[in-house]
Amino acid sequence: MLKYIIKRVLQFIPVFFGVTLILFLIANYMPGSDPVQMKVGEKKVTPELRKQIETEYGLNRPWYVQYGDYLYKLTKGDLGISISTGRPVSEILSEKYPFTIKLALVAIIFEIIFGILAGVISAIKQRTFWDVFVTLLTSISVSLPVFWLGLLLQYFFGIWLKEKTGGAFYLPISGAEGALPTWEYYVLPSLTLAAVSMAYAARIMRSQLMEVMSMDYVRTARAKGLSGRKILFSHEMKNALIPVVTFIGMDFGAMFAGAVLTETVFNWPGVGFTIYRAISARDFQVVIGGVTVILFAVMIINLIVDISYAFLDPRIRFTGSEE
Amino acid sequence: MSDNILEVKDLKMYFHTRDGVVKAVNGVSYDLKKNQTLGIVGESGSGKSVTAMTIMRLIQMPPGHIEGGEVLYNGQSILDLSEDEMRKIRGNKIAMIFQDPMTSLNPVYRVGRQLAEPLMIHKGMKKKEALARAVELLRLVGIPHPEERVKDYPHQFSGGMRQRVMIAMALACDPDILIADEPTTALDVTIQAQIIELMQDVQQRTGNAIIMITHDLGVVADMADNVLVMYAGKPVEYGTTEEVFKKPSHPYTWGLMGSLPRADMTEKEPLMPIHGMPPSLVDLPSGCSFHPRCPYAKDICRTEVPSTHVIEGMHTATCHFAGESGFTREVMEKEVGQSE
User: Fold this and answer.
1) Chain B: closest CA distance from residue A314 (Å)
2) Longest dimension (CA), chain B
3) What is the mean pLDDT of chain B?
4) pTM for the predicted model, two decimal places
5) How many CA atoms are closer than 13 Å to the CA of B257, on its beta-carbon side?
6) Given this model, what pLDDT does residue B111 score?
7) Minimal CA–CA distance to B178: which of B211, B201, B217, B151?
8) Residue A198 phi/psi, 5° resolution?
9) Which of B98, B104, B117 sits opposite A226 (nearest CB)?
10) Is the ipTM of this complex over 0.85?
């Protein structure tokens, strides 16, 4: 097991360098990327002013020197200074991250509850109304673009419902800046964020459970005299959940990075929205810093998922230790 | 006849599929006494397993449907029981062993837990007590170091060992009837003999009745008191093992015996396989279902469904010519051999 973990950690290294290098190249060669002009705004940039700003932020150095500097600072936990605000990137990110994590957590809870429940229902009620209903809903959910779904939800729950009920009932459509928002602010963005994954989780759950139901060991369990419910919850679910847990786990990692669209649509003050704004402002220190943090988060979560796999499936545990 | 622990009377189990009605079991009758072993033989698709699964009520209904007949366990009709009542019999009074031990155990649970399950639900044992009994069961079926092995997962056992575990599981609640559905088919020949021996050994100790489903006549000759030969969902010959082996009276039984290599065979004496394929159970041949493959078929076989003839005592065969003098395996095989 330890050997496996070490192997996986070593695999992080090429991924890390690959992603960060590509980022630096994009930042330097992207057309129309003039961070100095973006910082100054409407004003004309005099050569003196440009030189001053470039020296201040180290932009006059070649990109590989900047990359080396970034790596060196990273070892000390320093993510550089944001050119548009002049604040340390790590400070900005640590301010925004709680919003992203909370949103991702709520979305994951939605995904676990509704995804698994829908999958189980459609598997045990095969070819009934509920099965068709779930299949239809998941197809729609998978094919709707995230931002479009977000806008629809905003319109129905935030505007249409508010008008119809005379303002008595509606859900907020924009994340409040500043203090952490109350629960009703989470509903729409987390539903939007979870929608696609929820549908996939339901589908994986359904197909897995249906496959497990026809397994010989389920027949054995029935021959032993176990009740249908007991067979479902112990013998079938534990086997069928293995791939679902992996999917949801990986997805949790992806949500840290994938929240850019959702956060932007809902004005959610998280990391995704911050990165989006930083890209518009050509504030590459923030983009690179944000992506670096996401990168670490995703890799660590994936590792945790892989390890938890072994606890669900004893076969993996033992082949790992025998090798 | 109250000493019959199980009576199956004219059981019919059909499956209603899109392609038509599959007559998987079509009028099967037999009975079973304590300490007795019944061997059910036949090719794949002859309805052997479905008969057994019907007794356990493990057939999905629909598509399965019981068209007629009765199954009496200790005089009580099993087919009329509610699902809850049936659950109390399954694994407790009637237990089953399946063909493929590699897939019949749940891969994510320890063997001990799977063994303990029937004890906890049927005997009301606490987990600790049931696990202690699981160790005893593993010892009973000849698994070395059972104290440690109960903590292992199925994938840590070999095929033969897993089948031993399956037998231990089936025996957990000391059932009256043990149904073994081709328990040795998926195993090596040497392991097969061990498993058969184990089952005989267990029967001697516990006195339970065994229904042995197999396509291996050797196993039947070895173990069974009575034999039921099935073809295309119907019984074609039924009798004590001695009767059936001494005086087989159905051409299909002859075919099964002719397909079996014997130690005293010479090179000149070829195997006599049954030609052709088992018929589709949706569209059975007219008359006797076996006629397209029967080397001795006459016109009557194509048109009329044969009735069951009593050969001697309880020995019966369902063939138009069964019991007629001269209609024996030796005579007929010689005749066909000459005409070829």
Assistant:
1) 6
2) 70
3) 86
4) 0.80
5) 17
6) 92
7) B211
8) -60, -45
9) B117
10) no
